[in-house]
Amino acid sequence: MKILILHRVPYFKIEYHRGISHDRHEVTYFGTDRALATLPPDLRCERVSRPGTRSAFEEARDWLTEQPRDFDRVISLSEYELLDAARLREHLGVPGAPVDQVALARDKVLMKQAVKEADLRVPHFLPLPRFLEQDGRVPWYGRTVLKPHRGASSEDVLVFDTPGQAAVAITEGRSGVAPLDAGSDLEDFEVEEFVSGPIRHFDGLVQGGEVLILSASEYVGTCLQYAQGLPMGSFQIGFSQETRAWVSRALAAVRIEDGSFHLEAIVHEGELVFLEVGNRVGGADVVATVELATGVHLPSYELRVLLGEPIAGKLPEPPADRRWYGWFVHPGHHLARRVFRGLEGAVVFRSSPRVVAWNELPSGAPLPDHITYQSGETVLAGIVASDTPEDTREYIVGLFDSLSVRTGPAAPTTSEQVFA
Question: Which residue has the higher pLDDT, 220 or 152?
Fold first, then answer.
């Protein structure tokens, strides 16, 4: 089989060799030089570099116009290039999920509308242009969320006290989101009701519309708080058959039929309220914690699903000794342009027998200038395990309450030294 992979996620996050035989198949990786540099040097494959100045679809289309060839599959496991892969499949006539189907799991307005039509509860929501046309007069009161349709990592997400405040701030160009304040990109945003309660994420694998693997977890902190500079994590919890059925209905509503999924919901007054979903694996250490708990490496089996291999009945058995895993990350992007000098309050937690993985930046390393959950980039990332969900949560909460980050000024660049 000839396989084209739009390569964006670092190779070690996916480990493509675990799901695709590179000896049996002809695999081509299409990505920027930075992305291609993450490929193992001895991996049997073709590497095709793209500039990265336009979309992956546009650059792949132009490359294939100049150097025509056929592919049996076009795959992307990056949230940011799922639509590019779908467009390229349609352009080349390659089997796989079409653009309109993929868009349901990428556009937050479309997905909530679909889930609502499936009689599952969603927050009240409106596309931003329609919200502004109504001058903030909407069927909800209180806190109001502004977010991009297709954003990730809670970038450009804002919470206002009331719909009216949101409308005034956006109309007067003082929302704090640069494109909106410049009067552009209104159609790329939505506004929705803020629903309070614990936030859960459901991760797993689906093939032919059947959920084969499901893991449930509850966040400690939120993605929005992480974007603002606070640590976050999650811990695995049990779930009922009713919850499994709810997840299946939500996935069916947005037509996620094959591959991995990462679904988020809010528990409000005992009821699950759909928040958003992606046809991809979760970030941070979701993949690792799911594999530790279930024995299933989600990207590997997703790749097999996307190649058309039936996997029901072929999944590994979960470990006999059931443990409850969690992951944690401490941000550093809010301290950009400084260097890491260590953690205060970490000694007891670092040496705990509950720790499965602890990845701390080395002292003197520069702090990231962008939101990242990636170990080796952010201040701290790790995995913990306990005998109960409550114990796992207790460890993460205690860690966050105790930690503080020491930083120092970054060394001046040559130009700064010259003009100091």
Answer: 220
